[in-house]
Write a structure and sequence with these properties.
With 314 residues, the protein is α/β, with parallel strands linked by helices. It has three domains: 87 residues, Arc Repressor Mutant, subunit A, CATH 1.10.10; 97 residues, 3-Layer(aba) Sandwich (D-Maltodextrin-Binding Protein, domain 2); 97 residues, Periplasmic binding protein-like II (D-Maltodextrin-Binding Protein, domain 2). The strands form three sheets. The protein has a five-stranded mixed sheet. Helix 1 crosses helix 2, helix 1 crosses helix 4 and helix 5 crosses helix 11. It is elongated and about 70 Å long.
Length: 314
């Protein structure tokens, strides 16, 4: 049985002889709760017993794992790195005793949480929701924002899928690319669009903070051309904010084409090509390997790809 598979450090660094399943379950509870008392309640054990288990875990991993923080405990970087592989290992053990049953989308209830930027939400979620409305009336979707380290939400079990750049995919997750889009220039109706790179650089721009997560393709393309960066007048957190600021100001925004087209359908806006060769924006569907064979999750991944007009490549 594969209990842990940590690629960053050699497995021989762990004192495997001191590990048992109870300790790993305790570690999982401590990571989820950040509290010895709360973990003890979940495990139906006394606080001193869980404290002793934490001591043994610290010896096994040669790391404090948790440090005091306020009234609870904060995980160390080593503990955070263990979270995803640990969930995967415990899930594999659980499936030995509770084989998953088939998922019936017409009858079964399910709640899936998806980490997604507003780009992926605009590009895909409308078609996903429409597909679910017709094929899975009891399935509920919650969208969670991309903030901080979104892969931690997958590791903790707070989310089941993430839509994001392939670079976001940690080793304990699987992924498949499924969106590839070009970029477009967007301005409010009546404002001229740039037709040359010189005009593009002279205009005042709205920049989007989350572009960095997608590789900062525009600035990367400018650097390759040896050109100055854009004249950014406003930086906003997401594409939705960029759309509404652009629609109500003379500024120029450079947006993924699905966002730009959706904006032009709802608002009075002009669309045009970017006068620069810009690498396309790419989004992958990323999920924890522990859910690889989970029937509801298998169905969800297929539903996402079906609603995007693609066949499953998992």
């Amino acid at each position: 049985m594969r209990l842990l598979h940590i690629s960053d450090e050699p497995i021989q660094n762990m004192k495997l002889s001191g590990l048992d399943l109870d300790l790993l379950i305790a570690l999982d509870a401590l990571l989820d709760t950040g509290s010895v008392s709360a973990a003890a309640g979940r495990l139906h054990r006394s606080q001193p017993a869980v404290s002793r288990m934490l001591g043994r875990l610290r010896e096994c991993f040669d790391d404090p794992l948790f440090v005091p923080h306020g009234r609870g405990l904060a995980p160390t970087p080593r503990a955070i790195a263990l979270r995803g592989p640990l969930k995967l290992s415990l899930s594999e053990v659980q499936q030995l005793f509770n084989p998953p049953r088939a998922f019936d989308p017409l009858r079964d209830k399910a709640h899936f949480r998806i980490v997604s930027s507003d780009y992926a939400a605009v590009a895909l979620m409308g078609s996903i929701v429409s597909w679910l409305h017709d094929h899975a009336p009891h399935v509920h979707i919650s969208l969670l924002p991309v903030t901080g380290n979104p892969e931690n939400l997958l590791a903790s079990g707070e989310a089941e899928i993430m839509f994001g750049p392939q670079e976001f995919c940690p080793g304990w997750c699987a992924s498949t690319p499924f969106i590839e889009d070009s970029w477009m220039c967007v301005r409010r109706k009546g404002e001229p669009l740039p037709t040359t790179l010189k005009e593009y650089l002279q205009m005042a721009h709205v920049a989007v903070h989350i572009e960095r997560a997608f590789g900062n393709q525009v600035d990367e393309a400018l650097r390759k051309r040896g050109r100055a960066t854009r004249r950014v007048q406003v930086t906003v957190p997401d594409f939705s904010a960029a759309v509404f600021i652009t629609a109500n100001s003379p500024l120029l925004a450079t947006l993924p084409s699905p966002v730009a087209r959706a904006a032009s359908n709802l608002l009075s806006m002009e669309l045009g090509e970017v006068p620069l060769r810009v690498r396309g924006s790419s989004v992958s569907m990323i999920w924890p390997r522990r859910l690889e064979r989970d029937p509801p999750h298998v169905w969800l991944r297929q539903a996402v790809l079906d609603s995007a007009g693609l066949s499953f490549r998992g």
